[in-house]
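Q: Please design a sequence for this.
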């Protein structure tokens, strides 16, 4: 490995502010960083091995960090998995990104790990959904397989709206993904974790008169990273194998218990921390982890601890 470890972020420029803050800190810590768009990467696989090229020049990453989603998820997953197979350490691997972006897999993994989540039902059959909701009670929330900032989510209050929603689904393979509505003061807490360790927590409150706490127009405050929050967020990040994760946690007002809505694996956070007039601590800690992991992946995985938490 070169003396200055090269960390390659695979992604587009949608979250440029996050990438910039991350790269500045990586360089301050003595590493090198660059972003490569999935479209730029050329991959050669032969009997002699695998090579990556950008603009005809070979790229030799010491570590790849995955930040691909939506239209680039599948291509990016292929590139990250190819890198992993070629022996390059990958943080937020292909499978982690798929797990993080798929609500279905989020649910399966959280329940399997015993992390308090929500009962969910996904599929297309109308009668099964109608009897499931009748048994559990209204309202319920429906979400697309992959969403962000609450786009495409609905709160359904009765059987007629459940039937109408089911019939409005596009032709297969679109499915419903339904869970009970949690009364949680229309707020949740985003906990950012690096190497499965919680480093920061931010409360998000839905815009007036709405219930989606991360919808545009929401408000954000610093939240205390309590032991209870830390434990559930870290278990959730680990359940997803997400070495950089944004875990959305709600407190159910009826029981006082915490529940994880989902784990995000490309959690943008610069704008939030700027608004709170704080350093982007999750990205600074992530930079420290990546530099350490680029030199010794196993050592960083087992030994790296955050230096600051907020
Ligand atoms: N079951 C639910 N009950 C109440 N509010 C919910 C529920 N699911 C999601 N929300 C609200 O919607 C927001 C977005 O939901 P989330 O599952 O995190 O999807 P996204 O990927 O769009 O962020 C949550 O932060 C929360 O405020
Ligand atoms: Mg969310």
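A: Design:
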């Amino acid at each position: 490995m070169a003396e200055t470890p090269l960390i390659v972020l695979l992604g587009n420029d949608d979250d440029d502010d996050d990438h910039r803050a991350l790269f500045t800190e990586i360089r301050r810590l003595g590493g090198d960083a660059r972003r490569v768009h999935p479209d730029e990467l050329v991959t050669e696989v032969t009997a002699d091995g695998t090579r990556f090229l950008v603009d005809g020049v070979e790229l030799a990453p010491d570590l790849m960090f995955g930040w691909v989603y939506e239209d680039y998820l599948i291509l990016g997953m292929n590139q990250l998995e190819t890198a992993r197979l070629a022996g390059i350490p990958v943080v937020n691997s292909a499978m982690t990104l798929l797990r993080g972006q798929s609500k279905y897999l989020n649910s399966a993994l959280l329940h399997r790990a015993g992390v308090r989540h929500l009962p969910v039902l996904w599929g297309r059959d109308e009668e099964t959904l109608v009897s499931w909701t009748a048994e559990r009670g209204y309202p319920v929330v429906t979400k697309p397989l992959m969403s962000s900032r609450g786009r495409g989510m609905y709160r359904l209050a009765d059987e007629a709206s459940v039937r109408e929603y089911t019939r409005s689904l596009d032709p297969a393979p679109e499915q419903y993904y339904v869970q009970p509505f949690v009364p949680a003061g229309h707020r949740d807490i985003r906990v950012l974790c690096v190497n499965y360790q919680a480093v920061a927590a931010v409360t998000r409150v839905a815009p007036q008169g709405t219930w989606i706490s991360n919808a545009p127009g929401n408000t954000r405050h610093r939240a205390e990273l309590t032991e209870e929050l830390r434990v559930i967020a870290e278990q959730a990040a680990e359940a997803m194998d997400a070495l950089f994760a944004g875990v959305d946690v709600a407190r159910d007002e009826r029981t006082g218990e915490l529940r994880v809505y989902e784990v995000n694996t490309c959690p943008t956070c610069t704008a939030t921390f700027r608004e709170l007039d704080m350093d982007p601590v999750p990205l600074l800690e992530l930079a420290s982890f990546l530099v350490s992991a680029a030199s010794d992946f196993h050592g960083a995985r087992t030994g790296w601890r955050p230096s600051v938490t907020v």
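Q: Thanks. Anything notable?
A: The mean pLDDT is 97. The domain at 6-96 is CATH 3.40.50.20 (Rossmann fold).
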